[in-house]
Amino acid sequence: MNARPYHHGNLRTALIDQAEATVRERGVEQLSLRELARQVGVSHSAPRRHFADRQALLDALAEDGFERLGAQLRRAVDAAGGAFEARLRALAGAYVRFATRDAAMLELMFAGKSREPSGALHEVSERAFSVMLEVIAQGQEQGALEQGDPERVGLVLFATMQGIAALITGGMVDAAGLDGLVADAITNFLRGSRVAVA
Amino acid sequence: MNARPYHHGNLRTALIDQAEATVRERGVEQLSLRELARQVGVSHSAPRRHFADRQALLDALAEDGFERLGAQLRRAVDAAGGAFEARLRALAGAYVRFATRDAAMLELMFAGKSREPSGALHEVSERAFSVMLEVIAQGQEQGALEQGDPERVGLVLFATMQGIAALITGGMVDAAGLDGLVADAITNFLRGSRVAVA
DNA sequence: GCAACAAAGTAGACGACGACAACAAAGATG
DNA sequence: CATCTTTGTTGTCGTCGTCTACTTTGTTGC
Fold it and tell me: Which of A51, A58, A64, A56 is nearest to A124 (CA)?
């Protein structure tokens, strides 16, 4: 009935949604609380009720991003069947896809991590990466990967994926070559990780 | 004689130097043209004579960064002697060291690349990466790496280095484990890249 | 030498932003 | 239905990037 009731109802989620869209389109730097408020149709300081400052909004976005990333990784791995290598390739593909399609989001997600290791953000990010650890552990059980701390073994793989994504978003390599590059990297990783001799 | 002559003399380099220090200490986001001018002791709009806008200053910083990076890589490789693997490990170590010590710089260097593929910035960045290509080519000649376009072969390696740096600066892995992680990654890369059988 | 000109720095203004404080409206609670 | 809390509004402050107009210094040609 009322075009704009005094209470928005769910301003917080509306702000986050709009912020995600803006970040995707124009980058983190261009995200302005005031413009956000305008787009959502509230006064310039209404967001303050939900986010103490700009960084608080960014943290909330990061949290949201980790949830989405975790869900996408999980879905990709689950859809890849039971074979280790297929699951690994699906995982890597899904990660790099997210990293390139939502580059600004990922940047934001990693930027915040350096300051405060506690809190909900850290928890949800751990949950996202747990999928990786599972797949690594599977590879170790099957002898396709060397033994040892899955986290340590997985770090190199994860680093490579992250780096490939950085090359794409940095414009150093064409996005068209993405799949091939990922496939190469995985192949190389598997060859190098298989403990010498069968 | 005069405490502050009207003409600064080399304002441009003074600004760049101060900007580099600030970026290193407080990050790109906190870099303000006005504060920079204050620190150097000129009026708030003096920097405009040397940098059309904030982005122009950032580009200049990036260019400077690529020069420094290239020099450090070159020095590290040259100091490592003639053996391929030693050179490769020195190269990787030097890169990751730069990437972690000057994380904000590197971020800035990569951020600018996406927009304008031409210009001096692109050129100096190519020169920095030429060291990598040389080392890769040497490895191929000696049969330690698979044949093919050096750029393509090196991309995966470079991506891994970049990713490791991202893990460090993102706080996902302790900086103390850096050297070990790099060594592992190189070992893995070499095992995986050596064309099957001798 | 000096007049004209270019280069380099200054002064002031504008609009936008993040942050803050004081106030108002709408719900929730007793 | 009176009170309290939540949520949104209005107004202000200091800072920032950018722009325009002006001033000072150095250079160049006669």
Answer: A64
pTM for the model stands at: 0.90
Nearest to A50 by CA among A88, A8, A82: A8
From the list B152, B164, B191, the residue facing A159 with the nearest CB is B164
Residues A180, A128: Cα–Cα separation, whole Å:
25
Domain that holds residue A67: 54-193
pLDDT digits (tens, 9 = 90+) for A88-106: 999 999 999 999 999 999 9
Residue A198 lies in a domain: no
Strand C contacts in B 101-160 (CB under 7 A): none
Give the residue from B59, B55, B54, B37 showing the smallest Cα distance to B46: B37
Residues of A with CB under 8 A from a CB of B: 29, 110-111, 113-114, 117, 152, 155-156, 158-164, 166-167, 169-173, 181, 184-185, 187-193, 196
The total domain count for chain A is 2
pLDDT tens for A13-25 read 999 999 999 999 9
Flag whether B198 is in a domain: no
Based on the fold, state whether residues B36 and B110 are members of the same structural domain.
Answer: no
The CATH number that applies at residue A6 is 1.10.10
| pLDDT digit string, tens, across residues B39-69 | 999 999 999 999 999 999 999 999 999 999 9
A18, A29: one domain: yes
